[in-house]
Amino acid sequence: MTLKPLLPARGGFSYNSVTMNQAPAGKKIISDAGLLYAAAVWGSTFFIVKGSLEFIDPIILVGYRFIIASALVALLCLIGKRPLFRNMKKGMTLGIFIWLLYVPQTIGLGITTASNSGFITGLFVAFVPIFSFVIFRRVPSLLGIIATLISLSGLWILTGGLTDINRGDILTLLAAMTYAIHILYVDKFLKEGDDPFTLCFQQFLFVGIASVAVGVIAGLPFGWGNAGTGWTVLFLAVFPTFSAFFIQVVAQKYTTPIRVSLIFAFEPVFAAIFAWTLGGEQIILHRAMGGLLIFLAMIISGLPRDILNFEKRKAVSEEIKSDKY
After folding, report:
1. Is 18 within the bounds of a domain?
2. Which residues contact 323 (CB under 8 A, 6 or more apart)?
3. pLDDT score recorded for residue 159
4. Cys-Cys crosslink for 168: which of 72, 108, 200, 265, Cβ 3.0 to 4.6 Å?
């Protein structure tokens, strides 16, 4: 698809890429399915990461998984003859946000409870419209605000809210904030025409190198306690990092940041589903109700922006009647 410059948009940058209203219905469905896959994969990793922290340093864990993921994306770029190091500034920008997401979240997961980590990470849903307005001066739609509030209510019910706030919770809050900013900048760069393959490679490579560099400077241990931890690192690199983030970057071309955040709010929902199935935990009614509220929020976010504009709906209805008669 060829991108052509337009007049400056209200948000301070311009694009005429595919938006949620312009994208074909089929691509919207595929992008939503891809984002749901990413949320499901990320939801499966909470207990995996927490268990592995007994055998490997959290920063080194992040470094290994992103270096492996960057190598996989580099292979795809070379096969497709795509540039690896073009316009590194944007890829490094995204890399900084991912590093500030994963390192604090991984360290915090070793300090706080899984429920606190799940809820606080889910707060990025609220930060997306806030940062969208603060950074890009985009005013969220009324439906977007309603959907965000419903989603936050669902997250609170699903996870049980906050209990016994500690240092790990504060680190996880930083991760939630950078999570939201990352979503917004991915949207910005894609709609300016940047290649998703190149952006993925550059951000992954930055996170991997930065983590290893911190490990060397701080004298952190680079080994892991057993072979199982090595397989865990490989799983985290291939599925929740390489495949999920790559799908996120591609899918964001066809939807809005707020809808992306609401779909990603399913991450703790999938975490609960995995706990009920693979983890053998008992199904808890209030967690199921929380998941239903998040699903409702996603449905609301997909409604037309003008559905609450009663004056416009009336005018369209009158126009239809006049054409008919």
Report:
1. no
2. none
3. 63
4. 108
Q: Report the 10 Å Cβ neighbour count for 110.
A: 16
User: Tokens 């996870």 label which residue?
Assistant: 159
3-state secondary structure 84-120: CCCCHHHHHHHHHHHHHHHHHHHHHHCCCCHHHHHHH
CB environment 71-99: b (16+ within 10 A), e (fewer): ebbbeebeeeebebeeeeebbebbbbbbb
- Here the tokens at position 31 are 């992008």
pTM for this model (two decimals): 0.76
- Residue 35: strand, helix, or coil: helix
Identify whether 20 is part of a domain: no
Q: Tell how far CA 55 is from the center of its chain.
A: 27
Question: Rounded to whole angstroms, what are the CA distances from 218 to 8, 96, 168, 231?
Answer: 45, 19, 20, 25
Phi-psi group of 33: left, alpha or beta (phi > 0 → left; psi -120 to 50 → alpha; rest → beta)? alpha
- Outline where 110-243 has alpha helix (H): 114-122, 124-136, 142-159, 167-190, 196-218, 227-236
- pLDDT confidence band for 260 (50 / 70 / 90): confident
pLDDT at 3 over 90: no
Residue 292 in any domain: the answer is yes
C-alpha dist (Å) from residue 205 to 69, 104, 174, 314:
8, 18, 22, 53
When divided into structural domains, the chain yields a total of 1
What sign for the dihedral angle of Cα 91, 171, 47, 268? negative
Please identify which residue in the block is written with the tokens 């301070």. 12
Domain that holds residue 194: 25-324
**How many helices, marked H, and strands, marked E, lie in the chain?**
15, 0
Cβ-based neighbours of 310, under 8 Å, separated by 6 or more: none
Q: Which of these, 115, 209, 238, 122, lies nearest to 166 by C-alpha position?
A: 115
Q: What is the tens place of the pLDDT at every residue in 198-250?
A: 999 999 999 999 999 999 999 999 988 788 888 999 999 999 899 998 888 88
Q: Are 158 and 268 in contact (CB under 8 A)?
A: yes
Does 156 fall in a domain?
Answer: yes
CB atoms within 10 A of CB 276: 15
